[in-house]
Specification:
210 residues, alpha/beta, three-stranded parallel sheet, 5 strands, 13% strand, WbqC-like protein
């Protein structure tokens, strides 16, 4: 299968599996850094599989003046809440029995030890973490102005079912809930580990949205 030359994405909190599939099949990953902050998106949340089903864990942000567009790059994380500790506990509770959680746990702890005041910078670090662990190495670049890319907007949207269906893989709570999607790329990493690359390779660069 031929790779897509370029994929534009909005930096997200541990990009989801559908974004990873598209990223694997691109030559150049372009981060949109000139957009405005939008609620109900993966900019400040990711979805994991827990014993109770899908759970969205969200990063608290410092809210700015309402009623006006706020640049995404200016959004700061609210560290008055112990969100990192809570998120690490939620991730461990969800995936400690997965085949590869312990293998990646120390690297994950080192990532969460970083202090980034900017939500966008934190999300770029999270994306880099996933790409490095999965050994996905596209050329990385950044937009010089806002692109308004439709696919990028759909990939970042967390509200509603806008994602195509991809092939199932073994998940920790699959016997209880069936195969859950869309989920954060952490789910793929902890369940498949090094085999994640084979999974991503086997999926078409999914362009159609339900």
């Amino acid at each position: 299968m031929e790779s897509r030359a370029q994929l534009i994405v909005h930096p997200s909190y541990f990009m989801d599996v559908i974004s990873l599939i598209n990223t694997y099949h691109c030559d150049e990953l372009v981060f949109e850094i000139h957009d405005n902050y939008v609620k109900q998106t993966y900019r400040n949340r990711c979805v994991i599989a827990t014993t109770n089903g899908k759970n969205a864990i969200s990063i608290p942000i410092i809210h700015q003046k309402s009623g006006s567009s706020v640049p995404y790059s200016s959004i700061e994380i609210d560290y008055s809440e112990k969100w990192k500790l809570n998120h690490l506990r939620a991730i461990k509770s969800a995936y400690q029995n997965s085949p590869y959680y312990e293998y990646y746990e120390q690297d994950l702890l080192e990532l969460y030890a970083k202090e980034e005041s900017s939500l966008m910078k934190w999300n770029l670090s999270c994306t880099q973490f996933l790409l490095e662990q999965l050994q996905i190495l596209p050329k990385i670049s950044y937009t010089s102005n806002y692109q308004g890319d439709i696919k990028a907007q759909k990939l970042i949207t967390a509200k509603g079912n806008k994602h195509p269906i991809y092939q199932s893989y073994i998940q920790v709570f699959q016997e209880k809930h069936g195969f859950l999607q869309p989920l954060s790329g952490l789910d793929l990493l902890f369940n498949l580990g090094p085999s994640s690359r084979s999974f991503l390779k086997s999926q078409a660069a999914l362009c159609d949205f339900k």
